[in-house]
Amino acid sequence: MPRPSRWPEILLAAGQEFREHGYENATLEGIGARVGILKGSIYNYVGSKEELLLAVVEQPARALLAELERLGADTSSSVSVRLRELIRMQVRIFSEWYPAAFVYLRHLGHVVQSPRFAEFREMDGQYMAAVEALLAEGVASGEFSLPGEPRMVARATVGMLDWMQHWFTPRGEEADLELADELFALALGGLIAGGSMRALARSMPPAGVQTTLAVAP
Amino acid sequence: MPRPSRWPEILLAAGQEFREHGYENATLEGIGARVGILKGSIYNYVGSKEELLLAVVEQPARALLAELERLGADTSSSVSVRLRELIRMQVRIFSEWYPAAFVYLRHLGHVVQSPRFAEFREMDGQYMAAVEALLAEGVASGEFSLPGEPRMVARATVGMLDWMQHWFTPRGEEADLELADELFALALGGLIAGGSMRALARSMPPAGVQTTLAVAP
Amino acid sequence: MPRPSRWPEILLAAGQEFREHGYENATLEGIGARVGILKGSIYNYVGSKEELLLAVVEQPARALLAELERLGADTSSSVSVRLRELIRMQVRIFSEWYPAAFVYLRHLGHVVQSPRFAEFREMDGQYMAAVEALLAEGVASGEFSLPGEPRMVARATVGMLDWMQHWFTPRGEEADLELADELFALALGGLIAGGSMRALARSMPPAGVQTTLAVAP
Amino acid sequence: MPRPSRWPEILLAAGQEFREHGYENATLEGIGARVGILKGSIYNYVGSKEELLLAVVEQPARALLAELERLGADTSSSVSVRLRELIRMQVRIFSEWYPAAFVYLRHLGHVVQSPRFAEFREMDGQYMAAVEALLAEGVASGEFSLPGEPRMVARATVGMLDWMQHWFTPRGEEADLELADELFALALGGLIAGGSMRALARSMPPAGVQTTLAVAP
DNA sequence: AATGAATGAGGCTTCATTCAT
DNA sequence: TATGAATGAAGCCTCATTCAT
Questions:
Q1: Which residue among C25, C76, C194 sits closest to D209, beta carbon to beta carbon?
Q2: How many CB atoms lie within 10 A of CB A113?
Q3: H-run or E-run covering C134
Q4: Which residues span the domain enclosing B28?
Q5: Residues C16 and C62 reside in one and the same domain
Q6: CB-contacted nucleotides of strand E (7 Å)
Q7: pLDDT tens digits for C85-115?
Q8: Given a contact as 3+ CB pairs under 8 Å, which chains touch B?
Q9: Between chains, do B193 and A198 touch, taking CB under 8 Å as contact?
Q10: Binning pLDDT at 50, 70 and 90, where does residue A1 land?
Q11: Do C68 and C28 sit in the same domain of this protein?
Q12: What are the angstrom distances between the C-alpha of A80 and each of A160, A189, B182?
């Protein structure tokens, strides 16, 4: 059985175990079992369980970083288009690097502390900052009307996307793109109309009282 | 030295440790240390680490369930007002039961398997179903125009809220209410305008091309 | 509730717990629960779990010792009669001190090491020696014809009695006396006819071959 | 250093520790120390302390069961011969599986509750029933004359054998066989003459009175 | 590269025991 | 006397990690 290297299999198995049980509950024995080797043998490929987590997470993380830089370089598109791209990109990465990308998301805190991930150390912050800046730019350009601080809105928007780990599974390129654009539309509606809605909300009646919402769609 | 039971202290300490390190990384020794007792002493109050998790989580979980039932009973308000109440309610619970409510959210899967939590077993599903139904009702009444299936939109909306565990800390009743209403406005914008945005998105240019978004705010 | 002292209740409860679970599995909490007090309260009555075992066991042990001395003093009866008395005595003690006497038997090894039980330290050996001597005396007097060394026969006979902890429960004075005498008869048969039987056994056919045992009953 | 699995050593060590201290007092540390490994290492071979007990006990238990079935199949021998075989068999197993067989006997209650020992669940009862039936058969055929109910006599006889755990150590095949046959002779005497002895006992004088036992040997 | 076996640290849990009230 | 609470030691068990083969 010429198996030049089981590294890819191990990586895959680790990703699945980490996804299924979480990093702390996953065991090297379980990962080995998926591949058909004993736990000790894994150390022929990687130095520690933590390194294995990093290895699993590295590819989606690099992909994300690369895409982010690519998006940042696009100064010619409108804010909305760039946001659409951002969301499409995230969904694409979730899909392409499934389930590793979700492992990354779930254990972001752990990963980000590794010296080896110096480059990612502040990526999360940069990511948030980028979204925030994008929103602010939208406000400045008049495209957006936010219901609150850009930082808060950015967090809410990113949360919507990151929470996908709890319900998303890839369904094909087309369907995933469709989904991304629906999410984009949902977000965009809030970003564009949020300001008005905030004003409107102030005039809404308290709960428990029948009323008709006088909003023109 | 009056020692009227350290149970509340233990519960608090456990909530903090679980929040800080996660259930699996938290140790009884650490929890005991916060209170100033040895790990073994904790067993005077609770039968196992898992029971401790359940105890920490029980109050916010019950609060959530109670509020949910209260909201479900309100048939007189408009869909928008009910959604506003839902979001306010969540933020209020996050705030009142901080950080226990986030422990609950983070370890929902674990908690929900306990026999003791039989009543909560399907709460999560019911919660999602309730939000979904609310959105569908809004569509039927013409209040909402969603960019996709109600289920998907419900998930995205709930995700926005649940992700708050990664950035929210209570800042006082007033500020929290303000935040809740901003989140509501953000969501409402997407729910009302999402359908149009979806149509609009189709006509947006691809990335990398300068354009002006022709949207009237 | 005037409870001048719960010591007797505790002793009883301890005996039951020790009998039911064995000394090492019994817990002070369980004993306390039977009485309706907490485990810590037991230390108002006794210094340690081990002392509690000794206390439980002391009365049957002293009774046994006393009876043994009484029997030893009887030089006027025949060997058979003295053996009958020995067996009756044991059964009576098992019955009167039930279940404490069985706790004693089960944990003899533990008990006998206690300094406080110096007097009992070698009682077990003396007991065996007494039985052995009785049998030897029977041989010398011609009453008995043993199938082997007196020591071995003594051990077998005592084993028959001590094993009663696994099946005996008191059924009233009369029935217990009846039982004792049946056991005595069984033993006596072996002691009287054992020698002949040993000879006979030599001439028995091997197993698996049909034969008729030519023994006149 | 060839290390062809230490499982046998562990099994042996466990048997000795269980024999010496009893299951509940034995520690994995002690067992490991006998083998020269740490307690944790034992879990490379077995899943729990209880499983270790079962493993220790399994072989003698299976041996006993097999022998019992073998004996049950022998319908051609006389009752006495079959009883002789039963006793020889027991002694042989005590000797061959020393000390594991005694561990089995001592912790029968514990062992028999294991799902893994479903087949042995009722063995103990069957064993008693078999002895009882054998005795009853002897009565019916006129070979035996018991001093009481077959059940009681069976219990006493079995007790004689099972109590051997407190004094027996193997002394070689020949000596053990000799011992078995002496025990058999002792038992047989009681079984054959027990009835007469019971009658005789009624007419014996009370203790404390000199008398001559008028029994022809 | 894989195995079998061992290590060692650490965590959960139990429980006899102590002690202030 | 009884309680509630705490201690401390010890035991079982898990698991990442190491290593000779």
A1: C76
A2: 10
A3: helix C123-141
A4: 1-47
A5: no
A6: 1-21
A7: 999 999 999 999 999 999 999 999 899 888 8
A8: A
A9: no
A10: low
A11: no
A12: 17, 11, 21
Number of residues that make up chain D:
217
Interatomic separation, CA of residue C44 and C1' of nucleotide F7, rounded (Å):
19
- For B106, nearest residue in chain A (alpha carbons): A106
The answer to whether residue A204 sits within a structural domain is no
Taking the CA atoms of chain A, what radius of gyration do you get in angstroms?
21
Tens digit of pLDDT for each residue in B128-159? Answer: 999 999 999 999 999 999 999 999 999 999 99
- Chain A closest-CA separation from residue B38 CA (Å): 24
Q: Do D208 and C22 touch (CB under 8 A)?
A: no
A215 is a domain residue: no
CATH of residue A60: 1.10.357.10
Q: Are residues B37 and B138 in the same domain?
A: no
- Report pLDDT digits (tens) over B109-127: 899 888 888 887 877 788 8
Helix, strand, coil percent values for chain A (each to nearest 5): 70, 0, 30
Interface test with B, best of A23, A160, A191 (most B CBs within 10 A): A160
DSSP class of residue C47 equals S
Mean pLDDT, rounded, for A56-67: 92
Residue C58 in contact with residue C36, Cβ under 8 Å?
Answer: no
Alpha-carbon gap: C35 to the closest alpha carbon of chain D (Å): 25
Mean pLDDT to the nearest integer, C33-53:
97
Same domain flag for C135 and C175: yes
A162 and A65 both lie in a single domain = yes
User: Is residue C215 included in any domain, yes or no?
Assistant: no
Per-residue pLDDT band for A207 (boundaries 50, 70, 90) equals confident
Q: Measured between alpha carbons, how far is B10 from B32 in angstroms, rounded to an integer?
A: 7
Cβ proximity of D217 and C196 under 8 Å: yes
Give the CATH number for residue A26: 1.10.10.60
Q: What SS3 class is residue C27?
A: coil
Distance in angstroms (rounded) separating the CA atoms of residues B176 and B95: 8
- pLDDT category at C41 given cuts 50, 70, 90 is very high
Which residue type does B165 have?
A: Q
Q: How far is the CA of B29 from the C1' of E11 (A)?
A: 9
Q: Which residue of B has its CA nearest to A148?
A: B182
- How remote is the C-alpha of D160 from its chain's centroid? 9
Q: Which nucleotide is nearest to B46 (CA to C1')?
A: E13
According to DSSP, residue A205 is labeled: P
pLDDT attached to residue A209: 55
Backbone angles phi, psi at B135, to 5 degrees: -65, -45
Task: Provide the CA B4 to C1' F4 distance, Å, integer.
Answer: 9
Using CA of residue C67, residue C73, residue C79, residue C80, what is the dihedral sign? negative
Q: How many domains does chain B have?
A: 2
Q: How far apart (Å, rounded) are the C-alpha atoms in residues B186 and B183?
A: 5
Evaluate whether D14 touches D52 at the Cβ level (below 8 Å): yes
Cβ–Cβ gap C186/D78 under 8 Å = no
Q: Are residues A64 and A43 in the same domain?
A: no
Q: Which of A81, A167, A201 sits opposite B185 (nearest CB)?
A: A201
| C189/D189 touch (CB, cutoff 8 Å), yes or no | yes
Secondary structure element (H or E) that encloses residue B49, with its range? helix B49-73
What local confidence, expressed as pLDDT, does residue C96 receive?
A: 97
Helix (H, G, I), strand (E, B), or coil: what is residue D97? coil
Asked if A93 and A62 sit in the same domain, the reply is yes
∠ CA A170-A176-A180, nearest 5°, is 130
CA dihedral D2, D4, D8, D9 (to 10 degrees): 20
Q: Straight-line distance from CA A97 to C1' E5, in Å?
A: 37
Residue D86 lies in a domain: yes
Query: Which residues does chain D have with pLDDT short of 70?
Result: 1-4, 209-217
D99 and D190 housed in the same domain? yes
Answer for D29: CB within 7 Å of strand F.
yes
Q: How far apart are CA A46 and CA C102, in angstroms?
A: 60
